[in-house]
Write a structure and sequence with these properties.
This protein is an all-alpha fold. 71% of the residues lie in helices and 0% in strands. It has one domain. It contains six helices and no strands. The mean pLDDT is 88.
């Protein structure tokens, strides 16, 4: 997964190839979430349809890193998807809890 990501970041053509290769689930459903997450990283360098598909593949139990939540929201907004509203709520929840964690750590 790391190799696919690193190669794709160096060359946009490889991003498309790796994105396509990782479209199919791996044997026995292994590494399903990491596979979907790598596809979202690869999709950032691709067109809107690939970005939307990559984000949709992570639903309904989406990864919770801030950069993913921000990307998810931007993709849904660009696609004028009804999923943009729940994505905005998820990002707001993340930011609210992240701020609380930061505030608690500072005390």
């Amino acid at each position: 997964m790391d190799l696919a990501q690193n190669l794709a970041l160096q060359d946009r053509r490889l991003a498309q190839v790796m994105f396509d290769v990782l479209a199919q689930p791996l044997a026995a459903g292994l590494w399903e979430l990491p596979r979907a997450e790598v596809r979202t990283v690869l999709a950032r360098n691709l067109s809107e349809p690939e970005q939307l598909q990559a984000v949709l593949d992570c639903e309904p139990y989406v990864p919770w890193p801030r950069d993913f939540l921000e990307f998810r929201l931007s993709v849904y907004r660009a696609a004028k998807s009804p999923r943009a509203e729940p994505a905005a709520r998820d990002l707001a929840d993340y930011l609210r809890h992240d701020d609380k964690t930061f505030d608690e750590a500072a005390q």
